[in-house]
Amino acid sequence: MAPRGHHLTEVALLASASADLAAAGAGEREGWLDDPAVLPSLGPRARALAVASAARSVLVIVPVAGGGGGGVTVEPALGPEEGRISAVEWVPLTAEEHGEGEDGVVVVVGTDTGWLLFYSLAGDLLHKQSIYPAKILKLNYRERKENAWEDSGSDELSIVFPGVIARFDGADLQRILQKSFQDVKSRLWKDKFEEEDAADEGSFGRIHFQIWNVSKFGSCADAAIVGLMPPPLLELQSSQRHYCAITVGEDAVVSAYRLSEDRSRSLVGAILSRGVAATFSTISSLSKILWRSEPSPPKKSRPKPQSFAKTSPLTCLKDSPRKGERLILSPSGTLAAITDSLGRILLLDTHALVAVRLWKGYRDASCLFVEMLLNKDKASSSSMHIEYTKRDYCLCLAIHAPRKGIIEVWKMRTGSRILTIPCPKGSRILQPSARLSSSFSYAPLEVYLFNGDSGQLSVLNSHLG
Ligand SMILES: *[C@@H]1O[C@H](CO)[C@@H](O)[C@H](O)[C@H]1NC(C)=O
Fold first, then answer.
1. Which of 158, 240, 325, 453 could form a disulfide with 426 if both were Cys (CB 3.0 to 4.6 A apart)?
2. DSSP for residue 310
3. Residue 12 neighbours by CB distance under 10 Å
4. Low-confidence residues in the chain, pLDDT < 50
5. Contact 171, 154 (CB under 8 A)
6. How far is the CA of 213 from the centre of ligand 1 (A)?
7. pLDDT tens-digit profile of 291-321?
8. How far is the CA of 262 from the centre of ligand 1 (A)?
9. pLDDT in tens, 426-458
10. What is the DSSP string of 356-399?
């Protein structure tokens, strides 16, 4: 690891992976990473980088270690029905059997017609599912294990559409993906024909999910599920789960909703879809053998969209002509940083649903929460082997302001700016979707900087000074 300035440490130089990254547009022109249709996403523990290109319809996965050689380029089979890639995210597989192995992660791609495609690091299609016929604006995997002593909900993958939000429970996701992982391994002997056929949704099960209409105050540009929330007063007896969702968008800068889980659906739906899926795949594999010479398998129609579960609007903050653009949640979900069309950044307390802070003059900014070591005493007296706990870290917000060419770090909630560092053009700030903390050492929330032109991937040092 080479030092770079005081505040960034180089993790890898991915230029040597340019043959792989070039498939996603790297090196074609300066500032290729500024293209909003280029979607970078950093894997758990920053071990791999995925870059998708909507225009080229490719997904490139490069390992970060070893200079980024040995990447995989996937060209998802996207017909007119599946549309173009519009979002990318990483999902860690948590089963013991995967242990520390590099196999324990999956990359999920969302499309602008509402399909999800899950890939292994080797580029095998593990799962494909139609969610809702609209553009997937964001995929977000969240770990919810931090508050193990209270029910903070389970890990989840949320899928944001304009005015609609869907949620996969981590456990449902794990079950199907683990199984596909094993299936793919045992299917290696199969020929090309069958591989292609397997890309039909009918041959995969359906992962159960919940979906809500959150467009009461207008469609949204971004949204997030903040966490669990108490049931409404008259329903205290019910064991149904409720989530709080925050949306940002054109008509209402910020709105909040209570999302209620549709219990009946989760039971009946799960049983039905599993039964049907099993029968269906048996039939389809039989027909595969019988109709081998057929040039294209019969096209199955896209499943009907699932009906919405109950949503209750909680509040909305209108501030025309300001439009909410992007929303980033703090790890516990108690704070959200919201950027808007007038170059402002709003810090929202998501429990009280009040704005606690406002920054101005940050057009096109992107924000990420980060944990910094501010406990100077411990830091300065430290030997190499000191173990830091969560309490040693202070939650901060990193703001990348591309027009100013800087990254700033501000202490939460009301603290001062503790850092300003220059940031070259054509760079993006990234954060692994999962930290995978072990019980032995605390893994702080980190922010990485990927310079698309130089290929340099750096991490923001959590130590100040
Ligand atoms: C979602 O809800 C809004 C009003 O709350 C309604 O106007 C709209 O038609 C609904 N969308 C769908 C797809 O049902």
1. 453
2. P
3. 24
4. 1-4, 98-102, 148, 191-193, 196-198, 266-297, 382
5. yes
6. 6
7. 434 344 455 678 888 999 999 999 998 887 8
8. 17
9. 999 999 987 766 666 788 899 999 999 999 999
10. EEEE-S-TT-EEEEEEEE--HHHHHT--TTPPP-GGGEEEEEEE
